[in-house]
Design brief:
Elements (H helix, E strand, L loop, with lengths): L11 E3 L3 H7 L2 H14 L3 H7 L7 H4 L4 H27 L8 E4 L3 E4 L2 E4 L5 E3 L4 E4 L2 H8 L6 H20 L1 H10 L9 H22 L7 H11 L23 H14 L14
Parallel strand pairs: 1-2, 2-6
Antiparallel strand pairs: 3-4, 5-6
Helix pairs in contact: 5-7, 5-9, 7-9, 7-10, 9-11, 10-11
The protein binds zinc ion.
Length: 280
């Protein structure tokens, strides 16, 4: 994708250095803060954030990785593209799109859906309406899952944004209702349909980018490779026992690629009703 001149979203919440900062002001100071936080019922992290950050030590112990900074910029571009695309589509539906926040983290993170570790992969938390991504996942996507390229990264971000779109359009409620009726499981269950629809919605992002003429040869293939790589039949997500909402079954590689392509080809929301589709 020719993305250098593209707008970068301001809705990135970079929490990558928080663990390092905490270590640096640990010891007695950290304990005092924690006790004060307990006494006053405040969130210790908020207090820790307000403390002056050390000039060296933890700050420099986590060296800036130029490659990761580049990926961060690209992720911010994709997020901005989804904001524009969904803003337009929601307006056409007579609705207002509320932009989600995207949290970058290392190792583990406290989300509105519980503590999550990097090993669980990128996810969306409907409770706080935020996307959570450890940028090291994209290195894994490139090496372990052999899905390199910027459009592979774009697909992952756009898929998680797709879940946010589903939340706003009430699709998550449909899945919860199906779950109450005990019909969420299996290859044709509501959870799989939700995931495949998020792939379709990622395709709608790709369609909007394509229509602006900045897509390059091979981009679509990169996204399809990523969609295939993270299908249930290729990837068994490592369960760490944490509460993570995006740990449902996702459909097969072929299904994921097909729904993404359908969204990219049509850009038409009416084509993306995976819940009514007789064949997935
Ligand atoms: Zn998902």
């Amino acid at each position: 994708m020719r993305w250098r001149d593209e707008r970068q979203s301001e809705n990135i919440e970079d929490r990558r250095d928080m663990s390092g900062g905490k270590i640096a002001i640990g010891g007695l100071g950290g304990v005092v803060v924690l006790i004060l936080a307990l006494i006053f019922g405040a969130d210790p992290r908020q207090i820790l954030e307000q403390l002056p950050q050390p000039e060296d030590g933890a700050q420099t112990s986590r060296a800036v990785n130029p490659e990761e900074e580049e990926v961060k910029k690209f992720v911010a571009v994709v997020l901005a593209q989804t904001e524009d695309a969904w803003g337009d589509i929601f307006r056409q539906m007579g609705r207002q799109y509320h932009k989600p926040k995207l949290v970058l983290f290392n190792d583990r993170v406290q989300s509105g859906c519980g503590i999550a570790a990097s090993a669980t992969g990128p996810f969306y938390c409907p409770q706080d309406e935020k996307l959570y991504i450890d940028l090291s996942f994209f290195r894994e996507l490139r090496t372990r899952f052999r899905a390199p390229g910027d459009f592979a990264i774009g697909y992952v971000v756009a898929h998680e944004v797709g879940h946010h779109v589903q939340k706003q359009l009430g699709m998550m409620d449909r899945v919860n209702a199906a779950r109450r009726r005990g019909r969420e499981d299996g290859a044709n269950g509501a959870s799989v349909r939700l995931e495949l629809q998020a792939d379709f919605l990622a395709g709608v992002w790709a369609h909007s980018v394509q229509s602006r003429g900045i897509v390059e040869n091979g981009d679509a293939e990169e996204a399809l490779a990523a969609a295939s790589a993270v299908g249930d039949d290729r990837l068994q997500r490592e369960s760490q026992g944490y509460a993570v909402p995006d740990s449902f079954t996702h459909g097969t590689s072929a299904q994921r690629a097909r729904w993404f392509l359908k969204g990219m080809d049509t850009g038409d929301m009416r084509q993306g009703d995976t819940f009514s589709a007789s064949e997935l």
